[in-house]
Design a protein that fits this description.
single chain; 18% helix; signal; 9-stranded antiparallel beta sheet
């Protein structure tokens, strides 16, 4: 009886090994294939707003990020005011997975930036600013590579 059990276990192991050898590498690793950020200038559609940045030659850093965001300032007891203000963000490393998640803090403000790079697109972008005078700016965005 033990020999039948041993043959069954050996057959199952051989089947599993054959299936793993014929499956694509990304399926065996349990993760989707990752496309690195393509170097160049990225911009948002002009109808959606003004945002641009550059990805370095090897696709490893995002730099010169700037955006025009609607900023809300004030609150009780002062009236709330809205202004369009330009914001920038320091050079940031792009992880191998394509994600950028960074918080930039100074004494009087905090700014968060999150974005996922997939090839020539920057998807699921999110920017949040909070600063003095109860000023807040939040924006979700996407961008595409422009030019050659």
């Amino acid at each position: 009886m033990p020999s039948v059990h041993l043959r069954l276990v050996t057959a199952l192991a051989a089947t599993a090994l054959a299936a793993s050898l014929t499956a694509p590498a990304s399926a065996t690793a349990g993760e989707a294939s990752v496309r690195r950020a393509v170097p160049g200038t990225y911009k948002m559609k002009p109808s959606k707003g003004q945002l641009s940045f550059k990805v370095t030659r090897k696709g490893t850093y995002m730099k010169h990020w700037k955006a025009l965001l609607l900023t809300r300032c004030g609150g009780y007891p002062s009236p709330i005011t809205y202004q369009w203000l330009w914001y920038d963000f320091p050079t940031t490393k792009i992880k191998r997975s394509g994600w950028v998640r960074r918080t930039w803090k100074k004494d009087d403000f905090r700014m968060k930036l999150r974005v996922k790079f997939v090839g020539k697109r920057a998807k699921r972008g999110y920017t949040a600013y909070s600063g003095p005078g109860q000023c807040v700016a939040v924006r979700k965005w996407t961008a595409r590579r422009v030019g050659k």
